Amino acid sequence: MAAVRTNGERTINRLAIVSVLIITMIFLAPIYWIASTAFKPRNLATTIPPTIVFTPEISPFVKLFTKRSQLRAPPSQEEYAAAPWWERLVFDGGEKVVRSGRGEVQLSGYPSRFMNSLIVAITSTVLAVGMGTFTAYGFSRFRVKGEQDLLFFILSTRMLPPVVVAIPMFLMYRAVGLNDTHLGLIILYTAFNLSFSVWLMKGFIDEIPKEYEEAALVDGYTRMQAFFKIVLPEAATGIAATAVFCFITAWNEYAFALIMTNRRAQTAPPFIPSQVGSGLPDWTVIASGTLLFLLPVAIFTFLLRNHLLRGMSFGAIRK
Amino acid sequence: MATAVLTTLDPKSRAASRGMSDMSIRNLFIIPTIVFLIVFNIFPLLYSLGYSFTDFRASSNAPANFVGLQNYRDLLADPFIWTNFTITAKYVIVSVVGQVVVGFGVALLLNRDIPLKGLLTTLLLLPMMLSMAVVGLFWKLLYDPSFGIINYALGLGTFEWLSNPNMALYAVALTDIWMWSPFVMLLSLAGLSAVPKHLYEAAAIDRAGSLYTFFRITLPLVAPILMIAIIFRTMEAFKTFDLAYILTSQPTTEVISIRLYKMAFQEWQTGMSCALAYIVLIMVLAITNIYVKYLNKVKER
Questions:
Q1: Residue B16: pLDDT above 70?
Q2: Which of B3, B25, B112 is closest, CB to CB, to A1?
Q3: B69 within some domain
Q4: Which positions 112-141 of B are in contact with A (Cβ < 8 Å)?
Q5: What is the ipTM metric for this complex?
Q6: Do B40 and B170 belong together in one domain?
Q7: Which stretch, A47-56, A81-90, A173-182, B8-17, has highest mean pLDDT?
Q8: What is the pLDDT of residue B4?
Q9: Is the pLDDT of residue B235 over 60?
Q10: In this complex, is the C-beta atom of B214 within 8 Å of any C-beta atom belonging to chain A?
Q11: In chain A, positions 158-187, which contact chain B (CB-CB < 8 Å)?
């Protein structure tokens, strides 16, 4: 805005800076609390008053990945000495790692849910962005009868509440055996993200001058070659941004996953809340699981920062 | 679609005669997506439209009986469904108003020479990118009456947030405001930065007061983008499921999506839930229509 001139304006500007800093701290406080709880010993997670200064521990992450049971009696000296460092952390918390008959460490449900999230989010992103880019090019470069109506139809499928779509999908999946499968979720997320990807990619492709392809056509390229060799490289940034948005949406999705999966193909969002049972939950383990789950999205948000506006407005507003 | 016209190429030209024709490329690029969306979005909806006229229950093997409009009549006459809609409306109003006040307010603060503005903006945008279900879950700990940091920071003692039926909906809305104010802020910032500087300079020369400048210059010019943010957030708040479902199980927070979920997947009243889904669907499509109109309006500017 206008350059700072008077003393009064300077004071106002300083006040604005201080308020922005305070507001940012308030907004980040819940995320900070997740991160700090993920490194707390269990007995410090729920203290009155809340514990702010403590010696960080890695034990919540060990507990997150292993199946544990309560210790009836403290481990013998030899048992404790023979255990690897991470197992000792579990002993210290009054629990022991469950091992199979052959001594293999039993994993908790978390790693497989995390893997499921990765498989489903990555595959559906590749499909949605791939199909979306072709379709966006079609809409951008050729005249399509009823284009506005088709684009509205494409977008409206995304706007429906997940539960509304999930009821018939559940019945259909049950009939063909797609419930609780990766493929079932991948199809749902691809359909969900496809509309978004068409809208966003159309904006990016609209910005590439048609003259580039026309020059290539004159040089003897076919339309297909022009698309792959001229348009796709030009649209690379747009494709990357769209892919990250689709990945985040699929990664975070909860309602479809809750309804369509229960074990084999379950993703992390419905799994993590299911760990807060009726008893006293171990918030340090929940926090460590949450932190690992949020990390990819937090990193992507920083990479995406210049495209956030565009993505969140379906490509309509750009800077 | 079959009679569509080509744009850039003259079909008789040399370029057009090489490789596939533009028309077949267009069809190859567009039709699979349309077919995919019809098969996985429209067909299921037709399927559930059919079930909405029956007394089908997915939990039993009994054949579905055609009951005509009975489900719709029962739903519209059911006072409990109207309670769910009232709760949803209350939730939409509280959370959208909160998001606009906080989001637009922060955008006004940020719209000046502030050191590290880019970094602060990105940090402020973080909450809306995170998973509602997973982060929302953690708010249970933050709201805890005895050891939650919210009561501790505000000095509220053992104030009940989620287990108090009168407070729970506001607690859910507060978490939603935390998550989505950044969205309103992001769009408002775009609107604010598009206001031409010379308008402010002219107002300053005319010695216009800051309130006058705000209401006569800033607000009218930001209004269209702010409107997009409001309609989009209204639509999303109307559909809300994750947060309310995870944070509480109070009857006072049973928004329409939760009612629908329970009816379909806990009570297994499949036919009835398909009818309710259609009532919700029509409402959402109406809002979507307004939203898309606004999007196109802003796009054309």
A1: no
A2: B112
A3: no
A4: 112-115, 118, 120-135, 137-141
A5: 0.90
A6: no
A7: A173-182
A8: 41
A9: yes
A10: no
A11: 159-172, 174, 187
Q: Is residue B58 situated within a structural domain?
A: no
Hey, what are B279's tokens? 């009532």
Nearest CA in chain A to B243: A254
Q: Is residue B65 part of a domain?
A: no
Flag whether pLDDT at B12 surpasses 90.
no
Compute the mean pLDDT over every residue in chain A, rounded to the nearest whole number: 90
- What does the alpha-carbon distance between residue B281 and residue A164 come to, in Å, rounded to a whole number? 7
Assess B149–A contact: CB distance below 8 Å, yes or no.
yes
Q: Which of A163, A179, A260 to mutate to test the interface with B (most CBs of B within 10 A)?
A: A163
Domain shared by B148 and B212, yes or no? yes
Buried-exposed string B188-217: b where 16+ CB fall within 10 A, e elsewhere = bbbbbeebeeeebeebeeeeeeeeebeeeb
Confidence of residue A160 (pLDDT cuts 50, 70, 90): confident
**Does B8 fall in a domain?**
no
Judged by a CB distance cut-off of 8 A, whether residue A35 touches chain B is no
Q: Tell whether A71 is within 8 A of chain B (Cβ).
A: no
Q: How far is CA A172 from CA A253, A271, B49, B265, in A?
A: 20, 24, 14, 14
Determine the structural domain holding residue B215 and report its residue range.
78-300
Number of domains into which chain B is organized: 2
Query: Residue B266: which pLDDT band, with cuts at 50, 70 and 90?
Result: very high
B184 near A CB under 8 A: no
pLDDT at B14: 56
Please give the average per-residue pLDDT across A91-102, as a whole number: 85
Chain B touched by A226 (CB under 8 Å)? no
Q: Which residue has the tokens 């409206």?
A: A156
Residues 80-109 of A with CB under 8 A from B: none
Residues A37-59 have pLDDT tens digits of 999 998 898 888 888 889 999 99
pLDDT tens digits along A273-312: 988 865 678 899 999 999 999 999 999 999 998 898 888 8
* Cβ neighbour number for residue A67 with a 10 Å cutoff: 14
Chain A's closest residue to B228, CA to CA, is A313
pLDDT digits (tens, 9 = 90+) for B191-211: 998 888 888 888 888 888 888
B134 contacts in A (CB within 8 Å)?
Answer: 252, 268-269, 272-273, 290, 293-294
Q: What is the structure's pLDDT at A136?
A: 95
What would the DSSP string read from start to end of chain B? -TT----SS-TTSHHHHSSS-HHHHHHHHHHHHHHHHIIIIIHHHHHHHHHTTB---TTS-SPP-B-TTHHHHHHHH-HHHHHHHHHHHHHHHHHHHHHHHHHHHHHHHHSS--TTHHHHHHHHHHHHHS-HHHHHHHHHHHT-TTT-HHHHHHT-TT--SSSSTTTHHHHHHHHHHHHHHHHHHHHHHHHHHTS-HHHHHHHHHTT--HHHHIIIIIHHHHHHHHHHHHHHHHHHHHH--HHHHHH---GGG--HHHHHHHHHHTS--HHHHHHHHHHHHHHHHHHHHHHHHHHHHHHH-
* Class for the domain spanning A110-312: mainly alpha
Provide, rounded to the nearest whole percent, the portion of chain A with pLDDT above 90.
Answer: 61
Do the Cβ atoms of B4 and A143 come within 8 Å? yes
Report the C-alpha gap between B297 and B301 in whole angstroms.
Answer: 7
pLDDT at A51: 87
Which residues in chain B are closer than 8 Å to A195, comparing Cβ atoms? Answer: 37
